[in-house]
Write a structure and sequence with these properties.
Layout (H helix, E strand, L loop, with lengths): L1 H8 L5 E3 L2 H5 L14 E3 H11 L2 H12 L2 H15 L21 H12 L2 H7 L3 E4 L9 E4 L18 E9 L3 E10 L2 E10 L3 H16 E5 H6 L6 H5 L8 E3 L4 E5 L8 E5 L7 E9 L2 E10 L10 E3 L5 E3 L12 E4 L4 E4 L2 H11 L2
Antiparallel strand pairs: 1-2, 3-4, 5-6, 6-7, 8-10, 9-13, 11-12, 12-13, 14-15, 15-16, 16-17
Helix pairs in contact: 1-4, 3-4, 4-5
Length: about 350
């Protein structure tokens, strides 16, 4: 959480100065032995935090960004709430024991997922070795290695894992061994969290979690499965016109499902909140009441005449598709003029009509 907030609120070339508190109030834990008045870049500090669990660096980063530990802790708790964490509270940036400072495995997974979406964070947590050049207080370079044994053989190669791409270790007497790990195989990225673990079991437990995930779940490309859905009569709506599509499902969007579950079993809802600039809407997928991924409906930048809003299909019904002022998808309805009734087309059919009408 400290590194995530730092990369979101600073540039990597900012100069961080170590205070007396940063040096002396973190001596009960791990560090890289910095001195009062020492200066390092933000990048160097964060590599020390992630690779060497350098508590004095975490403290200095927090003071640099917020001016005090209490203000930085407030940022941490606000970020946790923003991400949807329900059972965690942060009192400091380094994790040294405090009865009021705690986190659950689920919340840590939420935080770890959000952090990994940041490019700078990914680069730092997946780095095996890093060197801090001489500073104003140290004549020699400081050489650091990643303590995550599934990524780097710091003192043994017994726990190396071919698919490991990064992570973070931790330990205190109160928390036991803690481990957050990222792994990627066949394009699918998973993360595992172990809290209150013991060594060396927590390395093996993490491997077992990943093996289970990779063996039992699949990545499904949403656009491919969507187009292959046989419940939709494509030929009927393809006859509307032959222009290029105005919108499409992001071809890179994927969701994760158990290998034994058909894509059609996933529940889908359309959302319009907090969309990227090029998105018209977002398809939100769940399975068994769990979120399994999203797919944006994106513009293709095909020019359309927004004055054209109604066409007739082969059954004599009218198909109405409109863009509102905010460029969101609006409901597409079918209306039978002879009966004067209208009904809403199901979600999938509505989206596919949208794609094919604006062509």
């Amino acid at each position: 959480m400290t590194t995530l907030i730092a990369v979101e609120n600073s540039s990597m070339d900012e100069v961080v100065t170590f205070s007396e508190d940063a040096v002396y109030k973190t001596q009960g834990g791990s560090g890289i032995w910095r001195d009062i008045g020492e200066v390092m870049t933000m990048e160097q500090c964060l590599y020390a935090v992630m690779l060497e669990s350098a508590n004095e660096c975490a403290y200095a980063v927090a003071e640099h960004i917020s001016g005090s530990i209490s203000k930085f802790s407030k940022l941490m708790n606000e970020k946790a709430k923003e991400l949807g964490c329900k059972s965690s509270r942060f009192m400091n940036p380094h994790g040294l024991p405090d009865e009021k400072h705690y986190v659950t495995a689920k919340d840590m997974a939420i935080i770890a997922k959000a952090a990994y979406e940041n490019e700078t964070f990914r680069a730092i947590c997946g780095t095996k070795r890093y060197t801090i050049p001489p500073t104003n207080k140290h004549r020699e370079s400081t050489y650091m290695v990643n303590h995550h044994k599934m990524l780097y053989p710091k003192d043994t190669d017994a726990y190396l894992y071919d698919y490991c791409i990064g992570g973070k270790t931790g330990y205190t007497n109160a928390a036991g061994n803690t481990l957050v790990t990222y792994a990627q195989k066949d394009g699918m990225t998973l993360l595992a969290v172990i809290l209150n673990g013991s060594s060396p079991q927590y390395w093996n437990e993490t491997r077992a979690l990943f093996d289970f995930g990779f063996e039992n779940f699949n990545l499904c490309n949403v656009s491919e499965y969507f187009e292959a859905d046989e419940s939709y009569d494509e030929e009927k709506y393809d006859s509307l016109n032959t222009n290029d599509p105005y919108a499409q499902i992001d071809p890179q969007a994927q969701i994760i499902l158990p290998k034994t579950v058909n894509f059609s079993k996933a529940e889908m809802q359309i959302g319009y909140d907090n969309l990227p600039d090029d998105a018209l809407a977002q398809l939100k997928y769940t399975y068994g009441k769990r979120n399994i991924g999203t797919a944006n409906i994106i513009r293709t930048h095909t020019l359309i005449d927004k004055s054209d809003g109604i066409v007739n299909d082969t059954s004599g019904n009218q198909q109405e598709t409109l863009l509102d002022d905010s460029n969101q998808l609006t409901d597409i309805k079918t209306e039978n003029e002879s009966e004067g009734k209208s009904e809403q087309v199901d979600e999938k059919k509505r989206i596919k009509i949208w794609f094919r009408y604006f062509r």
